[in-house]
Write a structure and sequence with these properties.
Layout lengths: L2 E3 L3 H6 L1 H13 L4 E2 L9 H5 L7 H11 L4 E4 L2 H10 L6 H8 L2 E3 H8 L12 E4 L3 H6 L15 H6 L6 E2 L15 H4 L1 H17 L4 E4 L2 H14 L4 E4 H5 L5
Parallel strand pairs: 1-2, 1-3, 3-4, 5-6, 5-7, 7-8
Length: about 250
């Protein structure tokens, strides 16, 4: 299968280790992964701010970069959801619609496509799992606790295979961290209060690390943790799934 790696701009600029871990993890499962070098922003920040009409260039470039692949894998639920729901182009709408069916968030791809049941990973730490809103409520990566339905978590399923990892039980499993893209800029006071509540839940339950599939959420919480002088660290789930003791 032809697999393309889609790396969001903020991951590329601020957290390249998560991108490298995603690539190495996919290659461990025997996949030949390509990285289209001309990729840039997917257009989500503009669309979420009410300027979707300005995303034409982003949409056209995305189609040019990722046309012809069997799967497109990305370590960011919010960017994946944007492409799944909003990618379109007047120049080649058929290609855009096809790409929308082939883009996957990393844990979704590992569980639903590769159907991974064993990992050669070790991470002997107490870890709190943050269920990002786009991933949980948009991509259905885990069950929402307000529903009277069978619980599941694709990220949690993968973390359960990691040797030595203890997944801590949180008081509020699917509470928003308050990032919300441009929300954290326009409503910074509310955003910060939500972020403080979120990290306190992890700290209160003994987490050494907070992990998630969205580095935007982790970046927001990392800023709060550092300002609090907390010892809790953030780490993308790809880095845990790819981690092994030397």
């Amino acid at each position: 299968m032809k697999v393309a790696l889609f790396i969001p701009c903020y991951v590329d600029q601020f957290y390249p280790k998560a991108a490298i871990a995603t690539l190495e993890l996919l290659e461990k499962f025997g996949l030949e992964v390509s990285y289209p070098k001309n990729q840039t922003c997917c257009g989500q920040p503009m669309a979420n701010s009410g300027f979707e009409h300005l995303t034409k260039g982003c949409n056209n470039l995305f189609v040019q970069n990722f046309l012809g692949y069997d799967y497109i894998v990305c370590p960011s639920g919010s960017c994946v959801m944007h492409i799944k729901d909003h990618l379109h182009t007047e120049e080649n709408e058929a290609a855009a619609q096809d790409i929308r069916t082939k883009v996957y968030e990393l844990t979704e791809f590992l569980v639903d496509v590769l159907k991974i049941e064993k990992l050669e990973a070790s991470f002997p730490h107490k870890v709190g799992l943050h269920q990002s809103c786009h991933g949980q409520r948009g991509l259905k990566l885990s069950q929402m606790t307000e529903l009277m339905a069978e619980p599941f978590s694709k990220p949690g399923h993968l973390l359960s295979m990691v040797n030595g990892l203890e997944l801590v039980e949180l008081d509020r499993k699917d509470e928003c961290c308050g990032f919300g893209g441009t929300f954290c800029v326009t409503e910074e006071a509310v955003s910060v209060k939500m972020g403080k509540d979120r990290v306190l839940d992890h700290e209160r339950n003994g987490a050494e690390y907070i992990t998630a599939g969205d580095l935007s959420c982790l970046m927001h919480m990392e800023g709060i943790l550092k300002r609090r002088g907390s010892k809790v660290k953030i780490i993308h789930i790809a880095e845990i799934l790819n981690h092994h003791l030397s």
